Amino acid sequence: MNTIPALIRKAKDSLHGARVLASENLLDFAVGRAYLAMHYVAEAFLLSHKLDVLDPDGVADAFGQLFSNTGELPPIFHRWLIEAKRLAKSAEFETQTGITKDIAAEQLDRARAFVNLGREELTEPFM
């Protein structure tokens, strides 16, 4: 069973992996790792409200409904999560993704913002 601290650690590790992959110019894979960092933080936020989404594809929708639509978190995080999910799917299953260094850098920045949000909002009360 996932716990909030474990998900935040996994998100930090995924962000680190994304950085390493980007530094090796493995941009598709870096974008995929950046998405997973965001996904783990979103999942941790859901757990903070006692909501365990078993279907990984449902995490973004549940995150949007519970946090963005209610104004509990800035809606931009939900939009970033949706875009990252789309890019990661493309990066994983297509050969001509069009992912550039700029796109990868933007995804890394967004993933870092997600991880920081999770660390700020979730770490203390759940440790």
Notable traits:
127 residues, mainly alpha, 5 helices, Four Helix Bundle (Hemerythrin (Met), subunit A)
Question: Which secondary structure elements does this structure contain, and how are they paired or packed?
Answer:
Blueprint: H1 4-23, H2 27-48, H3 59-68, H4 76-93, H5 101-126
Helix pairs in contact: 1-2, 1-5, 2-3, 2-4, 2-5, 3-4
Provide an overview of this structure:
- Helix content is 76%, strand content 0%.
- With 127 residues, the chain is an all-alpha fold.
- The chain has one domain: Four Helix Bundle (Hemerythrin (Met), subunit A) (Up-down Bundle), CATH 1.20.120.
- α1 packs antiparallel against α2 (27-48), α1 runs antiparallel to α5 (101-126) and α2 crosses α3 (59-68).
- The two termini are 16 Å apart.
- The mean pLDDT is 92.
Number of strands: 0
Count of the domains: 1
Shape category: globular
Largest sheet: number of strands, sense, barrel closure: none
Class based on secondary structure composition and strand pairing: mainly alpha
Low-confidence stretches: none
- What is the string of helix and strand elements? HHHHH
